[in-house]
Amino acid sequence: MVARSLRSNRDFSVFWAVQAVSEVGNAFSLVALPLLVLHTTGSAAQMGLLTAVAGATSLLTGLVGGSWADRFDRRRLLMLCDAARLVLYGAIPVCWALSPQIWLLYVVMALASVFEMLFKITYVTAVANLVDKEQIVAANGRLEATNAIAYIAGPALAGVVAGFFGPTAAVAINAGSFGISLVGLVFIRLRPTAQPPADRTESKAGRARNGLAGFRVGAAFLWHTPVLRALTALLTVTTFLSLGMTDVFIYHLRHGLGQDERTVGYVLALAGLGTCVAAAATARLRRSWGFGRCWLGAMSLCSVSVLVLGSTGQVSVAAVTICLYSFGMALAGVCSMSLRQQVTPDHLLGRVTSAFWTIHGSLAPLGAALLTALVGRLGTHGPLTAVAVVLLAVVVAAAFTPIRQRHPEQTVVQPPQTRPTDAPSPREESHGDDSEARR
After folding, report:
1. How many helices and strands, by DSSP H and E, does the chain display?
2. DSSP category for residue 409
3. Is residue 255's pLDDT more than 90?
4. The whole model's pTM is what?
5. Residue 169 phi/psi, 5° resolution?
6. CA distances from residue 315 to 255, 380, 436 in whole angstroms, order as listed
7. How open is the CA angle 56-119-116, to the nearest 5 degrees?
8. Contacts of 307 by beta carbon, 8 Å cutoff, 6+ apart
């Protein structure tokens, strides 16, 4: 019945279709940009530094992005983000056709990451405005499964395109995908955002000034929810390690195992298969195992996979371990995002999402730069072994927190209306449970 309802929802179907195309483009970029840096500089550290710059600007955007997603028209925000990324990524192949300039990649990634973060936050809130609350897990599973399929085809195709035409051709395809998404968003309508009376009477100038105050509201919501407090702390450690992992995978395959671009694309496509299987299975696994077992099991699988990857010299084993790592990350991610959407009041969803991502990603740029620098200097074995040990420690710590609960959403106490003012009181902010967030 849920599947029929989703199929009959025209707006969700259009949104689903254009985001699938956009994710194919993102999958091209996932392979093309690191390869472009590697071709130009030959440096794993440069790859990590570029990722760190993008992560830093994402964090700054997270301070205000949630308030914008809650206070302004969400469809128009999504369209603005697509238009900006179309222009920014389109500038790379144009410039490279004239003269390669590595500095341009830093400028583009820094600016594009602003719009990427704003799009991700608004995307999460938009799903809640497209489907009924009881359909959120199914809708997220469908979106993530389709996105994962894109990440199966995308990296393989990107590797072929990069091998024959160069990495800039793959970047151009990514830019074009944002144009397709932009056109598709013109034809959808979102339900109006549910807002408390104070939000409805607030001026647009006042809304803009309240960006940082909105971040504090979202952070307070996280802090006063025990399971979210634990998740935020532990995922700060996890994200510190995981942001640079794709760069490490690519470097390991190219330099550690001596593989070409097409093989890199095929292996990352297999990683997409792991994500696809996880997205399709999440709803059933969560019903059977509950939230706690799914999350703890997923992170345990990531730990074991990274440990094996750092010790193997065979491409086939590396491909399987990267696939399992992607499965674990996707399972944990879909569970956490769905939980957050289910338990957070609609008028707070953007602020809670951006606060979560900003806080738990606060150390990620430093982690990406450090991990790739260590891999470039020491190789992959030692750094990946250390990552595996820390991930296992995260699992052990989580087992002693509310994360282990089977149904944390049932322990949530819905908060009273929260005023989005410049100085919300602790009493107004100290409410409720939300639940974890997706990566």
Report:
1. 18, 0
2. G
3. no
4. 0.63
5. -65, -40
6. 12, 14, 34
7. 35
8. 384, 385, 388
